Amino acid sequence: MSLSDVLARIEQLAPQLQVQQPTPATPAQAPTTHVSFADTLALAQAQSAQAPAQGSSDASLPSAAAPYQADIDSAARENGLDPALLASVIQQESGFDPNATSAAGAQGLMQLMPSTAASLGVTNPYDPSQSIAAGARYLRNDLDHVGGDISLALAAYNAGLGAVQRYGGIPPYAETENYVQQILGRYQSLTTTKETS
């Protein structure tokens, strides 16, 4: 099965899965070895550097993104993000379900915790426009704190900036490592599709 087949299958199953925010790993949960993301990270970061910071209508985004395309483009443009990266995070977080709520209480498309959403000025976390705009600001803040490193910003979005700083990189939590790998894989697929179309 090819990588594109695996990514397509993940996108099909993602809306059916219950979204959950990470729980800090205990020493027993922490893996003893780290997954190497070097090749995937290098490619994703190189493509991100080449991609325009301004959002624009992007036919290569998942079809589930279509109802939110204008909000994704706008939030990406305002925060200097690639729309494909923002869409990849939304796919991973909520499967584009604006009513998603995790067991930990994270809400909406971008799965923001209530206190985080409130700090970003969100009055209705289930409103797609508010969720996307706030999630994009939050991701931009994470990127700024980790020197623009996409993998570390994604890890911070999932596990918290404190965990990334504490470990000096992607925290050794299986959930966070998988989260980063899956988003980078999807992002790479979207940017490759965009470049060949």
The beta-strand count equals: 0
Shape type: globular
Q: Count of helices?
A: 9
The CATH level-2 architecture is identified as Orthogonal Bundle
Highest-level CATH class: Mainly Alpha
Short description:
By secondary structure, this protein is an all-alpha fold.
Q: How would you portray this structure in words?
A:
The longest helix has 23 residues, at 174-196. Helix 3 packs parallel to helix 6. It contains 9 helices and no strands. The chain is mainly alpha-helical and 197 residues long. 56% of the residues lie in helices and 0% in strands.
Notable features of this structure?
197 residues; mainly alpha; Lysozyme
Q: In terms of topology, how is this protein built?
A:
Elements: H1 3-13, H2 38-50, H3 69-79, H4 83-94, H5 114-119, H6 128-145, H7 150-159, H8 161-167, H9 174-196
Helix pairs in contact: 2-9, 3-6, 4-9, 6-7, 7-8, 7-9
